[in-house]
Amino acid sequence: MEREWCESMPQYSGLVKRAEAIHVHALDLEGKLVDKKYSGLLARIIQHEMDHLEGINFTDIMEKKSLQHDSLIK
């Protein structure tokens, strides 16, 4: 579980559990199949952005009571 931020909610963060590695099947801008594995920070970012496509914000899935304003993070 790591702290996650989003420009949809500037200056706030929360603890979100994400898969460390993912396997993506998608189409690129030319309609060609993309079949790649991602890990680490890039995997986290892709999961975060995929959530947005489903109408999910990090605050919907974060650990309860973990929301913090940046002014409180030292």
Description:
The protein has about 70 residues and is an alpha+beta fold. It has a single domain (about 1-70), classed as Peptide deformylase (Peptide Deformylase). It is about 25% helix and about 35% strand. It contains two helices and five strands; from the N terminus they run E-E-E-E-H-H-E. The strands form two sheets. The protein has a three-stranded antiparallel beta sheet. Strands 3-4 form a two-stranded antiparallel sheet. It starts with a strand and ends in a 5-residue tail after the last strand.
Summarize the topology:
Layout: E1 2-5, E2 12-16, E3 21-27, E4 33-39, H1 40-53, H2 58-61, E5 68-69
Antiparallel strand pairs: 1-2, 2-5, 3-4
Rg of Cα set = 14 Å
| Helical coverage, percent range | 10-25%
Structural class of the secondary structure composition? alpha+beta
Terminal Cα span: 19 Å
Oligomer: single chain
What overall geometry do the principal axes of the alpha carbons give? elongated
Task: Summarize the model shown.
The chain has 74 residues and is of the alpha+beta class.
Short descriptors:
alpha+beta; Peptide Deformylase; 74 residues; 5 strands; 24% helix; 2 helices; 3-stranded antiparallel β-sheet; two-stranded antiparallel ribbon
